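> run fold tRNA-uridine aminocarboxypropyltransferase
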Amino acid sequence: MSRPHCPRCLRPTTHCLCALIPHLDSRTRVLVLQHPSEVGHALNTARLAALGLNNAQLVVGEVFDDLPMLLNPPGYRARLLFPADDAEPLHAYAPDDQPLLLVVPDGTWRKARKLLHLNPLLAALPRVTLADGGVSRYRLRKAPGPGALSTVEAITQALQVLEAPTSFEPLLKPFEALIEGQIAAMGAEVFQRNHSDPT
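> ok
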């Protein structure tokens, strides 16, 4: 018999994170397109990000038939947060800038690329990127390379740049609690042996 789960954060009710999830306003609209394989993932940080932002939407799928509508909310210009040679680094809004619809594919790099391949409208969007050197706080898995961040970390960093000096750090609170919970579950000794950086 499976454990009861919170219908909002999808965590087991004994480990519900809803009390830590903020309700943040943002000038930027965030659209997270989540590959179905991520829905049951233990972290599912995209869901945490979407729940913590009042101006965010999470859509699960591989092919998005309503993409033309999703990518064209009135008053926003759509940009895809995904690396590319011609991707523009994000920078803070000027006072008269039209805000962004920040489109964020959620999945492994392979699954995210598949979403772009299956949705040509998505692949055709102008791309934006984060500054180099972001370091993930996810201490349980070695990042595949510098700048490899979880979805909630990437969204937080993007909003911090776009909407400076507003802080979006509270978005990371449930993510950090999730990591602490996983470390506690495995035990400090196992964590030290397998995951801590040797000095």
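The helical segments are 45-52, 67-70, 109-118, 120-123, 151-162, 173-186, 188-194.
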